[in-house]
């Protein structure tokens, strides 16, 4: 098992080659910070400071993911995304923005962005979002979702770990399903709040941790290795253990 | 004075237009008067000529010529005239020497030019005349000069000019004075506005007792300034609060890090210090995020995401979200059986509002306490979403202030959190035109969201 520290900065184990990212950001300081952090996490990060040069660079389709700042000199970030989508370039896009209006997020996603992060953000939050976009969640045509020791029956809404049945409340089932579709991947508290509960505020109570704690006590028996690891300062990770 | 400017004011322009209308009206009146008087005078002359002509015709033939020459001798102004012409048009006697050209011989009065001998020689003048054939074949002409009509016209014209000119002059003068007065008032208003823009936010526009249009406008502007000043004070207060709330955890993080650097002996010690400092920094992060979110909601006037919201389902979801946290503290979140209630609103935002109230309730209610969630239609249309708890609540005197950004009922501010939850709720409710009330109900502290218009 990896230690927490390693998990946080580990290059993606399932990725055959290093993922190529293009960061489109005009603020040199923010760009340098993001590049340093993502490079340390094992990504190959290229940088463009203006919309038009970014569009040229992104058009060859050699990147696995774009991180696009909303406000750019020359060509606006949303326009860059729209042009790329017009050219049928389907690379996932993470939109960054200093927050101005409530519908900014909607506009960012409408223009063809896949996820949206408002400044200021935590670098580990950015890394988690990047990872989530690079690795699309597991889809299954089967009525069962199987990750390591854990099997989820999508019809009966039950879980089974190594032959032992686990009763789940609907909310616990939803949470576990979300985690299992993203195995070995850091999931932040904000992602859980937004995606599982559609809640876009930072609660004052340790809401997410309590939910995870209850779920963890149901799926881990004493002595068994935990399937849901806590990643300090960031969030959680569903570990695939055979 | 600035006459040029006065001439450009609306008041002055209105005066000019008014004067023009006045002049046209006077002209019409003059025309009408002249037309009526002249008509009356003409009818009088015509009747007189007809009567005279008939009288002369009835005279004996040998008497007629004498009569024609003497009948009007006492007409001082020599306005009336008469003459007899022979069958071949030669004058036999009377006041004119030639048959007026164009005068029809039909016994009716016509307007003609006649040549009349005077002391200074023959004079051509317009006259009304009547020609008729006498029984013996000669021609009798009776006529009267129109000089009186001309005099009447001159009189009326003089009266019109004398009456109209001073009238218009007076109107223009009054218009100019009114414009100058208005300009002076506008100048005062402008000076006041300049002062307010320069920072004298407490200054107000002068309002006179007349309560005219300008005064009413000034009063409205003053009310707007009152509101702006109030908001400005609030923002200033909030600014201080923000500085304080960001400064406190930052200062704490700094002193922790400093202390750790001086005193930590092992890597674990240092790790603990760093963890606590990160928690402090996370708090400032949460504060900033919450502030931005509130600003987002407050600046958006958009209701594009509004739709039908099932309140019962929403409350169940909120209960579901907070159940584990409440259980952990031995609290119960109750929801009575309720009839379906729907409102029009933004579902995500309303959920955020309810979840925030619930978050507060769970946080402040002591372990083992009770929290209750409900939604009820009241008075037919209004609907109340109630989040009640057995926690300490908020003192009645502080309830108003609590809704303001950043204010926490606990002055020691030792409770974790950003203190922005209720402000966020207030911002969401303002967008919906809902409002918040606080009550003490059956020994519980209740926060009510009042939705004035519920559906079903």
Structure description:
The complex is a heterodimer of chains A (242) and B (456). Helix content of chain A is 37%, strand content 21%. Chain A has helices at 4-9, 28-40, 51-59, 77-86, 104-110, 123-134, 170-180, 189-196, 207-219, and strands at 20-24, 44-48, 65-69, 93-98, 115-119, 144-147, 150-153, 158-161, 164-166, 186-188, 228-231, 235-238. In chain A, strands 2-1-3-4-5 form a 5-stranded parallel β-sheet, with helices on both faces. Chain A is elongated. Chain B has 456 residues and is of the alpha+beta class. Chain B folds into 3 domains: 1-203, Beta-Lactamase (2-Layer Sandwich), CATH 3.30.450; 213-297; 303-455, Histidine kinase-like ATPase, C-terminal domain (Heat Shock Protein 90, 2-Layer Sandwich). Chain B has a 5-stranded antiparallel β-sheet, with helices on one face. In chain B, strands 7-9-10-12-11 form a 5-stranded mixed β-sheet. A 3-stranded antiparallel β-sheet of chain B has the order 6-8-13. The longest helix of chain B has 51 residues, at 147-197. The interface between A and B is medium-sized, with 26 and 37 residues.
Q: Might you state the CATH topology name of the largest domain in chain A?
A: Rossmann fold
Mean pLDDT of chain A: 84
Q: Greatest chain-chain interface?
A: A-B, 26 and 37 residues
**What's the SSE pattern of chain A?**
HEHEHEHEHEHEEEEHEHHEE
Unreliable stretches of chain A (pLDDT < 50, length at least 5) are 1-16
Label the CATH architecture of the largest domain in chain B. Answer: 2-Layer Sandwich
Task: Order the strands across the largest sheet of chain A as they lie in space.
Answer: 2-1-3-4-5
Radius of gyration of chain B: 51 Å
Q: What average pLDDT do the residues of chain B reach?
A: 84
Helix-strand category of chain B:
alpha+beta
Q: Share of helix among residues of chain A?
A: 25-40%
Count of helical stretches of chain A: 9
How many structurally independent domains of chain A?
A: 2
Strand order in the largest sheet of chain B? 2-1-5-4-3
What profile does the largest beta sheet of chain A have? 5 strands, parallel
CATH superfamily of the largest domain in chain A: Response regulator
């Amino acid at each position: 098992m990896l230690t927490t520290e390693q998990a946080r900065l580990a290059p993606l184990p399932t990725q055959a080659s290093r993922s190529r990212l293009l960061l489109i950001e005009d603020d040199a300081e923010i760009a340098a910070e993001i590049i340093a952090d993502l490079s340390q996490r094992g990504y190959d990060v290229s940088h463009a400071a203006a919309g038009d040069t970014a569009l040229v660079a992104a058009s060859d389709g050699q990147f696995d993911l774009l991180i696009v700042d909303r406000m750019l000199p020359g060509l606006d970030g949303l326009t860059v995304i729209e042009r790329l989508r017009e050219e049928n370039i389907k690379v996932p896009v993470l939109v960054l923005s200093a927050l101005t209006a409530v519908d900014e997020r909607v506009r960012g996603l409408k223009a063809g962005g896949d996820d949206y992060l408002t400044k200021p953000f935590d670098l580990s939050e950015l890394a988690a979002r990047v990872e989530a976009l690079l690795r699309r969640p597991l889809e299954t045509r089967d009525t069962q979702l199987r990750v390591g020791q854990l099997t989820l029956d999508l019809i009966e809404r039950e879980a089974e770990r190594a032959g032992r049945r686990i009763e789940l409340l609907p909310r616990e089932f939803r949470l576990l399903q979300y985690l299992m579709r993203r195995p070995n991947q850091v999931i932040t508290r904000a992602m859980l709040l937004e995606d599982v509960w559609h809640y876009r505020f930072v609660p004052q109570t340790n809401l997410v941790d309590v939910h995870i704690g209850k779920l963890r006590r149901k799926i881990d028996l004493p002595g068994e290795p935990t399937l849901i690891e806590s990643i300090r300062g960031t969030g959680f990770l569903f570990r695939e253990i055979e | 004075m600035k006459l040029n400017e006065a001439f450009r004011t609306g008041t002055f322009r209105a005066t000019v237009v008014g004067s023009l209308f006045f002049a046209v009206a006077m002209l019409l009146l003059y025309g009408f008067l002249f037309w009526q008087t002249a008509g009356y005078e003409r009818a009088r002359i015509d009747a007189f000529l007809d009567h005279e002509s008939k009288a002369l015709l009835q005279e004996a033939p040998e008497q007629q010529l004498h009569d024609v020459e003497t009948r009007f001798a006492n007409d001082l102004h020599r306005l009336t005239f008469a003459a007899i012409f022979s069958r071949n048009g030669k004058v036999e006697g009377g006041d004119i020497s030639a048959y007026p050209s164009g005068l029809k011989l039909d016994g009716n009065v016509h307007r003609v030019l006649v040549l009349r001998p005077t002391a200074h020689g023959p004079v051509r003048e317009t006259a009304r005349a009547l020609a008729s054939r006498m029984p013996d074949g000669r021609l009798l002409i009776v006529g009267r000069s129109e000089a009186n009509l001309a005099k009447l016209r001159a009189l009326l014209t003089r009266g019109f000019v004398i009456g109209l000119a001073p009238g218009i002059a007076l109107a223009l003068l009054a218009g100019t004075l009114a414009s100058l007065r208005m300009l002076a008032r506008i100048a005062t208003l402008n000076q006041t506005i300049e002062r307010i823009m320069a920072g004298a936010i407490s200054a107000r526009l002068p309002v006179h007792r007349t309560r005219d249009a300008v005064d009413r406008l000034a009063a409205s502007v003053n009310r707007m300034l009152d509101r702006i000043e109030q908001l400005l004070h609030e923002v200033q207060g909030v600014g201080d609060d923000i500085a304080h709330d960001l400064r406190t955890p930052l200062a704490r993080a700094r002193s922790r890090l400093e202390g750790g650097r001086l005193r930590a002996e092992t890597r674990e010690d240092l790790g603990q210090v760093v963890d606590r400092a990160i928690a402090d920094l996370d708090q400032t992060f949460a504060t900033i995020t919450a502030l931005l979110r509130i600003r987002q909601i407050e600046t958006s006037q958009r209701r594009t995401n509004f739709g039908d919201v099932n309140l019962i389902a929403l409350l169940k979801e909120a209960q579901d979200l907070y159940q584990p946290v409440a259980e952990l503290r031995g609290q119960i979140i109750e929801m009575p059986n309720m009839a379906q209630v729907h409102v029009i609103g933004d579902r995500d935002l309303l959920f955020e509002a309810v979840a925030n109230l619930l978050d507060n309730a769970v946080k402040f209610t002591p372990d083992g306490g009770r929290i209750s969630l409900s939604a009820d239609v009241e008075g037919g249309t209004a609907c109340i979403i109630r989040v009640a708890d057995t926690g300490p609540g908020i003192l009645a005197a502080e309830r108003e202030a609590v809704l303001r950004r950043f204010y926490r009922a606990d002055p020691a501010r030792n409770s974790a959190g950003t203190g922005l939850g209720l402000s966020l709720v207030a911002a969401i409710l303002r967008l919906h035109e809902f409002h918040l009330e606080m009550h003490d109900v059956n020994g519980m502290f209740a926060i009510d969201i009042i939705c004035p218009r519920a559906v079903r």
